[in-house]
Amino acid sequence: MEQSKHMLQLVYQALEDKKGEDIVMIDISQISVLADYFVICSAGSDSQIQALVDSVEEIMHKNGYSIRQQEGRNSGTWVLMDYGDVIVHIFDRENRSFYNLERIWNDGRRVEKEELS
């Protein structure tokens, strides 16, 4: 769990550095075997989505974490980045509202950024 928390810190930092909007972290470790954490973030444009994806990829690679799977990079509306213990969802505002993952995973525990230090 320590490693996944470190991964969560890195992802949050990468998204915050590139001005990701409304970053939500959900601890799903007690309710799912998919991952320990989901991170959900919004972006205002296609180019910001790409900048956020690039930022996450760069910081994770520099810290020795490999991406297992990525979906939607060319869609410009929703990118999923699977790092095993941490799954990152970067949406445009419209699709984030439509898919509403926060509601779907509301059994998980919200992680506040203060918990990351």
Relevant terms:
117 residues, alpha+beta, Beta Polymerase, domain 2, six-stranded mixed beta sheet, 4 helices, 6 strands, globular
> Mean pLDDT, rounded to whole units?
95
The helix fraction, in percent, is 25-40%
Q: Specify Rg, calculated over alpha carbons.
A: 13 Å
Number of strands: 6
What proportion strand? 25-35%
Low-confidence stretches: none
Oligomer class: single chain
The number of domains: 1
How would a crystallographer describe the biggest sheet?
Answer: 6 strands, mixed
Give me the strand/helix succession: HEEHEEEHHE
For the record, what CATH class applies?
Alpha Beta
In CATH terms, the superfamily is: Beta Polymerase, domain 2
Q: How many distinct helices?
A: 4
In the CATH hierarchy, the third-tier topology is known as Beta Polymerase, domain 2
Main β-sheet, spatial strand arrangement? 3-4-5-2-1-6
Tell me what the CATH architecture is: 2-Layer Sandwich
**Class by SSE composition:** alpha+beta
GO molecular function, one term: ribosomal large subunit binding
Subunit structure: Interacts with ribosomal protein uL14 (rplN).
Family: Belongs to the Iojap/RsfS family.
Pfam family, one: RsfS
